[in-house]
Write a structure and sequence with these properties.
This protein is mostly beta strands and 335 residues long. The protein has three helices and 20 strands. The longest helix has 16 residues. The chain starts with a strand and ends in a 7-residue tail after the last strand.
Length: 335
């Protein structure tokens, strides 16, 4: 259900997320045009109010941005009743809360985006297990950059932009949540990891389907790079492509990741966000979970290598590193 809030919509959803009997209630509300919260409540009969109505008990609250859509994804394949393979409990990825937040910066930065995030109940709290930009649109004028940067691609390898003073970069993605089972998850995991970042998605998908296997999130994106002619009011496509990325569940990281990578001998430099002045060193040999690859995003249509990777460090920190400073981890099973 939805109701209008001060800054944006207030949403609610019934969802069976915890191990307790009966569904819980999830609600979201905006706190500003760029911020919001998600709250998970248990229905608590012991706190019933006047008239015998069931009360609610807050289980967790997370910062979630300006949420515009709440949904549920069920990935656990429950065995048939009476099956000897039945196992007590369910995996943490069995049921996911999926929230989409929209950011509109059309004044100034002239960009819009939708970020979709999946949360799981880990027994104590709502844990973020996956997040990706599922829609983006950025518009800028070439005159905003210095001619030297445009010609040389200084700072991030420009690929050339074509005619017209205005440029638009868009990406629209479709999500598929693919169910898995607890048994056999390791087989698909190993195949995907050993094949590396590019072939890993295909190999892991094939092995996973054969084994029954790990759950995954498939992101299919249509990306386009266009120029705009103000005189004729016409957009001209410079380059377009279709990109498919598969995120597999990793027990090691308790999250859906693209693949694992190891920091090379020279170490890596981490940034909280691209271009951040404050940076920190990541030692050689550190294993990272790769959450996003810039080369597979819409920016990959414009920027030449090296591209950035959004990663997670073993201590849980999320940052960006150059993809040239890490190598895929072919010998380590991504479990």
């Amino acid at each position: 259900t939805a109701a209008d809030g001060k800054a944006g919509p207030m949403l609610s959803l019934d969802i069976d997320l915890t191990a307790d009997p009966g569904p819980e209630v999830v609600s979201s509300r905006w706190t500003s045009s760029q911020d919001g919260v998600i709250e998970l409540y248990a229905r608590d009969g012991s706190s019933a109010g006047a008239g015998g109505r069931t009360g609610y008990r807050l289980l967790d609250r997370v910062e979630a941005g300006p949420v515009v859509e709440l949904s549920c994804a069920t990935l656990s394949q429950q065995p048939e009743t009476g099956s000897s393979t039945a196992q007590p409990g369910r995996p943490v990825w069995g049921t996911l809360l999926v929230a989409a937040a929209e950011y509109d910066q059309s004044v100034g930065a002239m960009s819009k985006s939708r970020v979709t995030t999946a949360y799981a109940w880990d027994g104590r709290r709502l844990a973020e297990v996956w997040s990706a930009t599922t829609y983006s649109e950025a518009v800028w004028n070439l005159s905003w950059d210095s001619p030297e940067e445009i010609e040389s691609g200084a700072g991030h390898g420009g690929a050339g932009v074509g005619g017209g003073d205005w440029v638009r970069l868009t990406s629209l993605s479709k999500l598929d949540f693919v169910a898995g089972s607890q048994a056999g998850s390791q087989a698909g995991s190993q195949a995907g990891s050993q094949a590396g970042p590019q072939a890993g998605s295909q190999a892991g998908s094939q092995a996973g389907s054969q084994a029954g296997s790990r759950p995954s999130i498939v992101l299919r994106s249509s990306q386009k790079h266009e120029s705009y002619n103000e005189n004729t009011d016409v957009f001209t496509t410079i380059k377009s492509r279709e990109v498919v990325q598969t995120y597999y569940w990793s027990d090691r990281w308790n999250a859906f990741i693209l693949f694992e990578a190891t920091v090379g001998q020279r170490g890596a430099t981490g940034m909280e966000y691209p271009g951040a002045a404050s940076r920190f060193n990541i030692p050689a040999g550190t294993v990272l979970a790769v959450l996003e690859s810039e080369g597979q995003c819409a920016e990959g249509l414009v920027f030449d290598p090296p591209h950035l990777l959004r990663v997670r460090t073993p201590d849980g920190r999320r940052c960006f590193v150059d993809d040239g400073s890490v190598v895929p981890t072919p010998s380590r099973a991504m479990v």
